[in-house]
Amino acid sequence: MHKLLVDQPGAKKFLLGNEAIARGAIEAGLAFATTYPGTPSSEISLNFFQIAQESDLYFEYSTNEKVALEVAAAAANAGVRSMCVMKHVGVNVAADALMTLAYVGVRGGLVILTADDPYMFSSQNEQDNRYYGKLSGLPILEPSSAEEAKEMMAYAFELSEQLAEPVILRTTTRLNHSTAPVVFGEMKKPVTFGDFPKDPFNYVTVPAVSRKLHIKLLKNLEKAEELACESAYNFIKGSGSWGIICNGVSYNYVTDAVRDLNIVDKVKILRVGFSHPMPKKLIQSFIKDCEKVLVVEEGEPFMEETVKAFAQEVQYTNTVMGKDSELFSRLFEFDPAMVRTNIAKYFGVPYEAKDLPDLSDIPELPQRPPTLCAGCSHRAVFYAVNEATEGTGSIRTTDIGCYTLGFLPPLSAGDFLICMGSSVSTGCGFSKTIDKKVISFIGDSTFFHSGIPGLVNAVFNNHDINLIILDNQITAMTGHQPHPGVDMKGMNYEGFSQISIESVVKGIGVEHISVIKPYNVKKSIAAIKEAIDHKGVSVIIAKQGCTLFERSLKKHVGKPFYVSDKCKNHRNCLNDLGCPAFYVEDEKVRINPTLCSGCSVCAQICPEHAILPLKS
Amino acid sequence: MDITRLIIVAVGGQGNLLSSKVLGEAACRLDVPVRMSEIHGMAQRGGVVESAMIFGDAQSTIISDGEADLFLAFEPLEALRALNRCNSKTIVITNTSKLPPFTAAIGKGAYPDIETIKKLIQSKVGQLITLDANALAREAGNELSVNMVLLGALIETNVLPITAESIHDAISETTKKAFVETNIKAVELGRSAVSGTI
After folding, report:
1. Reported ipTM
2. Fewer CB within 10 Å, N side or C side of chain B?
3. Which candidate in A362, A417, A551 is best for mutational testing of the B interface (most B CBs within 10 A)?
4. Residue of chain B whose alpha carbon sits nearest to that of A587
């Protein structure tokens, strides 16, 4: 049985924040869940996917976040408890649906989870999605710990049903990827089926209906504010005259800092866990007898600006600060020492930070950037592209996935990237405005997510681009999730179809299409040259399963290679491929046999044919 | 309970997430308060993987620079790189077996020799304990059990209120059945490798 399905109320388990969220949703009677995977949210849906195999839960990997939210929105309007999980930038994709779903509302609970990523551990920006609460008018909940996140799930569903609108649960990486002991609760039996009584004058958002619905949304917002003031997730700790208002993981750093600085009796803390709408009355009563107030929040001054506005209404004239060049930054994530130092500084508490070791005598160390795995087929494609376009200065627009890492030397296969699906459409823009060949790279999952409209655009407007679809037959970067092009039957999952990328590309009307096997270097180079010479849209589909995934399934057992005595130290292998299986020993290139996957690309490009398969 | 902060650094693929999971499970069994934080995703593609574990009554799940009481490195270069996490009292345990990054192979920076690394670390921290965890893992029967060897060395310091027995139990529950015996052997080899040095 899946470990999150164990019906053992009171059992204490060491759970990842994301596992705690999944368990919380199951305890709350979750019946329907959708997602597009994205770090740091991915393990929530991975657990739902596994749980769905052995319970009544319906779960799907949808093609993108907008689709995921629309599917979940309908399920929730049929009256079943639903959840839609995504990373912060996924909400941008889903925003069109979100903004009007806020008007329409839901009949069963719908929780939209957004996993924000301060410091951008694995994201292209660090946008603060609390503003989506403000923009849409929907409530926002923010847990501070794994155990609280689990508890909050049930509350989120109740709140959603009470207000008849979706609730946004906002986490950050440090909550998603923190692990702590979590106590299991009772599991509510899910209601998996409902009904949708026809009521078009409330559900079909033509202008006349929407005008009415916007009035309803604003009324709901007032009700939500009252609920926020009473919510147990907006609580006050301590009774001192120095006020600290904080949220999410910042609350943990504040609690530890107040204890470390020995000022527990001087401080009172307002932890805001229901942060949109902000609890006005609660905040006004909290600040009124504070000497001064510090707002501790990662990201934007979302609470700070509101607290200042609330303070002005009640003529509170003492200082309220948060984001400031001398205090907290809008940039990156916080840490305990930073919060401790700033609290000491703001309230004038004597404190000496720990001496950091003097590291001035440490030599410059070789970097260890994340890199494509040994044997990754993307490397083979990038090598072939570099060979096929040598000396042309071609511009390569890239996209979001493992292959983004190819932008680093020596492959240098990426010059421009903004968001999911942008490789194709930005390629269109460049092709019309610069006098260089434009090559766009997109992964298979990203192609289905948002690459297709860009390709349709390219064909319709007759752009001169070459799109290379890096089809490794799985969503690799986020931990090997399925997508519409995956052979689910081959992985023993029933009830799915498989969509051929080639048929889609043909259907769109691309004139020049070729399918290559990236491990065949010569043929790949020839096919790429031909595609680039084609005037107009050409598409290459590079088909080779993700080596990491295939190795984990014990599917791909290639023999490792070694560098034989024939080697004359040209080092093309090392310098042009950048494969992490290579190392240099006594001035000779060697191959680490445990890392080598046997892709044979280096053997094909060695001018001396000195790289050979290991016998045995 | 007093707070002890542990940082573990490794190269993606060395299995530090599993060892921190085992350690956390063991703490749970003993009712030792524990919180842990780790970074997944892009960093795992051959980059540096770090986990932070905080034992005792703290709410934070991450550790600021200079505040690690214990520091466990799966790779000597990464031990040196992450020294800013330590202070003059930190107990450092590092594997001496090298995993040179690709950048060193293409001549972008030189991998310092192991004696230099040891000397530099030694001069800045409370205590340095070294062992060749890869050799011990091979001796245990599986090179991939480096993580378990280092876990053994870590608990042998007795800084954490975690018993070897609870580690064995956590291994039996958390790791794949086929590897339990090798993993326990690896823990014991790690323990005995450092037992005289502490």
Report:
1. 0.95
2. N
3. A362
4. B105
